Amino acid sequence: MKQKPLDSGFTLIEMIVTVALVAVIASVATPFVKLHEQREKERELKQSLREIRTAIDAYKLAGDEGRIARSLDSTGYPRSLDELVTGVVDRRDPKGRKIYFLRRLPRDPMNPALSGSAQNSWGKRSYSSEAGDPRDDNDVYDVISLSDRKGTNGIPYRQW
Fold first, then answer.
1. For 129, which DSSP code?
2. Which helix H or strand E contains 145, and what residues bound it?
3. Cα within 13 Å of Cα(111), Cβ side
4. What percent of the chain has pLDDT over 70?
5. Among 54, 82, 147, which Cα is nearest to 109's?
6. pLDDT tens-digit series, residues 71-87
7. How far is CA 127 from the centre of its chain?
8. Could you tell me if residue 91 is inside a domain?
């Protein structure tokens, strides 16, 4: 008895079912990937805000301790975010070395503008402005995100 050769390969129906299953899986996975990306950017935003705010507080403390020269009408906060990176002369150091508060200024991860400096990616609040109406003036008391979007927790990024 002779055996017939078996046809190898997939039928058209099997291929259509496989492609349909892959499409369904991809459509289910896409929102999860986008949510993961948004949460990762939010984590980066929280970390950047914490890093900059800690540096601003350290600058203020150094001024209060007399390590930074300042005028009588000064609030004690840095005049710009770049001052945290470029440093200021330590008045207590006999060699006149600088105190640095940040190695680099992080960018606002929620700011869509990729061009421009990291300093311009943040909104700045001066000591003389209200929390509900942050304005830039002669010093930097706090930083905010310039994004108009809301976070996964429902709070706008500007209020973080």
1. S
2. strand 142-145
3. 19
4. 94
5. 147
6. 888 889 999 999 999 99
7. 22
8. yes
Closest CA to 142 of 159, 124, 157: 124
What lies within 8 Å, CB to CB, of 18 at 6+ separation is 10
- Give start and end residues of each alpha helix (H) in the chain: 12-64, 82-86
CATH number of residue 62's parent domain: 3.30.700
Query: Which two tokens mark 86?
Result: 């470029």
Is residue 98 within 8 A of residue 89, CB to CB? The reply is yes
Q: How far apart are alpha carbons 86 and 117 in whole angstroms?
A: 14
Number of domains in the chain: 1
Which residue in the block uniquely carries the two structure tokens 């006999």?
94
For residue 2, count other CB atoms closer than 10 A to its CB: 4
Which pair of tokens denotes residue 66? 């007399």
At residue 107 the predicted structure's pLDDT band, cuts being 50, 70 and 90, is very high
Domain that holds residue 150: 22-159
Residue 96 domain flag: yes
Confirm whether 11 is domain-assigned: no
In a domain, 101, yes or no: yes
